[in-house]
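From the pipeline queue, job 12 of 40. The input is one protein chain; the requested action is below.

Action: predict structure.
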Amino acid sequence: MKRDEVTKLLDSLTQEQRDGIAQLIQETDPDGDYCGYDEDGGSFWCESVSVTLSNLAQLFSSYDPKSVLE
């Protein structure tokens, strides 16, 4: 997203909305995935910023306030 697009989006939000989004980002626990194997062949969990951000993006893009499944 280009800087002018980001500015336009931020300008369209109220301060309360921007604060709510910031709080959601700050308080979200890191997500991750099994990312490797130890010397015994067991997999281990790694926290990932990209997985966390991807999950937050999915939350926003898939949210449907009319859905009974949410």
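Job complete. The beta strands are 32-37, 43-47.
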